[in-house]
Amino acid sequence: METLVHRDALARFGHALSDSTRAQILLSLRTGPGYPSELAEQIGVSRQMLSNHLACLRGCGLVVAVPEGRRSRYELADPAIVRALGDLIGLVLAVDPACCPASDAEACC
Questions:
Q1: CA-to-CA distance for 84 and 76, rounded, in angstroms?
Q2: From residue 22, how far is each of 4, 14, 25, 94, 96 by CA, in Å?
Q3: Rounded Cα distance, 58 and 36, in Å
Q4: Among residues 25, 89, 21, 106, which one has the least CA distance to residue 62?
Q5: Among 59, 93, 97, 99, which is 20 to 30 Å from 70 by CA?
Q6: How far, in Å, CA of 40 to CA of 90, rounded?
Q7: Residue limits of the HTH arsR-type domain (predicted)?
Q8: Residue 108 has pLDDT above 60, yes or no
Q9: Closest CA to 39 of 71, 17, 83
Q10: What pLDDT was estimated at residue 5?
Q11: What are the backbone angles phi and psi of residue 71, rounded to the nearest 5°?
Q12: Which comes out higher in pLDDT, residue 14 or 98?
């Protein structure tokens, strides 16, 4: 039975994935923990932008910051997120190009 908690969790996950930078962060952390400076370089964004997206992902409950001295290591909050991302990557979508053209995919829906 679906509950308000389930709907909230799905809405948070959807919000996190609705931005391509946040999606890239999650995919990067799917393979293992990362540090902000390395993630920013890997993804190609400023550290400030990455910091804002990490704060959003923490707020959504998808990532956690693990303090290591003066630095923090980021990792996915739950191993189930790794599996969920894998399942989502493996989806075959029946996209209607008239509704959601490839060049406008981020603005779609």
A1: 11
A2: 24, 11, 5, 24, 25
A3: 13
A4: 25
A5: 59
A6: 26
A7: 1-96
A8: no
A9: 71
A10: 85
A11: -115, 165
A12: 14
Tell me how far the alpha carbon of residue 92 is from its chain's centroid: 19
Give the CATH number of domain 4-104; options: 3.40.50.720, 1.20.1250.20, 1.10.10.10, 3.90.1300.10: 1.10.10.10
User: Cα–Cα distance between 22 and 16 in angstroms, integer?
Assistant: 6
Give CA–CA dist 3/6, Å, rounded.
Answer: 5
Which tokens hold the place of 85?
């991302």
DSSP symbols for 40-55: HHHHT--HHHHHHHHH
22, 53 Cβ separation under 8 angstroms: yes
Domain ranges in the chain are: 4-104
Is the pLDDT confidence value at 1 over 80?
no
Closest CA to 13 of 60, 55, 58, 51: 60
- Tell me if 18 sits within 8 A of 24, measured CB to CB: no
